[in-house]
Design goal:
With 312 residues, this protein is mostly beta strands. Helices cover 15% and strands 41% of the residues. The chain has 6 helices and 23 strands. A 6-stranded antiparallel β-sheet has the order 1-13-12-22-23-14, with no helix packed on it. It has a 6-stranded mixed beta barrel with strand order 3-4-11-5-10-9. The longest helix has 20 residues.
Length: 312
């Protein structure tokens, strides 16, 4: 869950590219490329990429990471050069961490090249995801319209501004306007209006304290137990079952969740309102189509059977 900002100019550029790409879609000029996607036993989505023509390297597909990152071992293998230090610490689930900047170059995903001039080295999150060599973040993903089809085990890239193929029951949700590429949408959580951060790099759904309290998820309440969130350094949490999460017509029921005030909520500017990180325990059940340029996401409906979460 690395954090990076794109700025106002980046937002204007995305909207301009969306207008151009929308015209391409109408004329049938949108291109598509796909690549296999797998899930680790802990529920993290994995895709393979090449970096500067080398690879393939398995990476976590993370819609909650602003920057593509590598492990120390992969940095050494690629011979990446250190160029400085991030002016602000990178925000992880458990807090901020100062990191050095390295040159990277080009990433190739599903045969499509994408510039990724810099990277940072993050080893801590990867100790729980030994199948991967790093994290594929939004600095690469946001250059495309991306369909993350976990039920079909594939990732599809289309031109910016593209729309999903017809034939599926898609729910359209506009993204909450932000200065970065984080996927934040309005949601109904058990009857409480809240914001949801769509994060495939989180293998479990996590509520902040404000939302948990509004839902009656407090210590000592029936059905509430104590837990820990491993990826945030063992942060103490409350565990409960959430009756419903609704993003328009896309709804999940009886989802096992955890509640904790992670530093990430405040870093995203969402600490003072009801919010949850909608993790891959829910997102792996649906097809997710992200049009970064058009500031919108589409989701299919999950199965009607209850979702069983992967514990961190």
């Amino acid at each position: 869950m690395a954090r990076a900002s794109g700025g106002t100019k980046g937002a204007l550029a995305r909207r301009f590219s969306a207008a151009l790409a929308a015209a391409a879609v109408l004329t049938g000029a949108a291109t598509a490329a796909d690549t296999p996607l797998t899930l680790t036993p802990r529920g993290f989505p994995i895709v393979e990429i090449a970096i500067n023509g080398k690879g393939p390297f398995a990476m976590v597909l993370d819609t909650g990471a602003g920057l593509t990152t590598v492990t120390t071992a992969l940095k050494d293998e690629l011979g990446l050069m250190k160029v400085g230090r991030m002016p602000q610490p990178v925000q992880l689930a458990g807090g901020a961490e100062p990191v050095d900047i390295y040159t990277l170059g080009f990433v190739t995903l599903a045969g499509q090249p994408a510039p990724a001039p810099i990277t940072v080295v993050l080893d801590a999150p990867m100790k729980y995801i030994r199948e991967a060599r790093g994290i594929l973040g939004m600095n690469v993903l946001s250059r495309f319209a991306v369909e993350i089809d976990q039920p079909g085990k594939r990732l599809v890239l289309r031109d910016p501004g593209a729309v999903p193929e017809s034939g599926s029951d898609w729910t359209l949700r506009p993204l909450v306007p932000r200065y970065d590429n984080f996927l934040v949408v309005e949601a109904d959580i058990g009857g409480v209006a809240a914001k949801a951060v769509l994060d495939t790099g989180a293998n479990q759904t996590i509520l902040n304290a404000k939302l948990a309290e509004a839902l009656g998820i407090v210590a000592g309440a029936p059905g509430v137990t104590e837990g820990k969130i491993a990826l945030s350094g063992g942060t103490t949490s409350l565990k409960a079952k959430l009756p419903s999460i609704a993003l328009g017509e896309t709804q999940w029921r009886d989802l096992d969740i955890q509640a904790a005030d992670l530093p990430l909520f405040k870093a995203l500017g969402l600490g003072d309102e009801p919010v949850l990180i909608l993790g891959n325990d829910a997102l792996k059940q649906v097809r997710l189509f992200v049009d970064y340029a058009g500031d919108r996401v589409y989701l299919t409906r999950p199965p009607t059977t209850p979702v069983v979460s992967d514990q961190r």
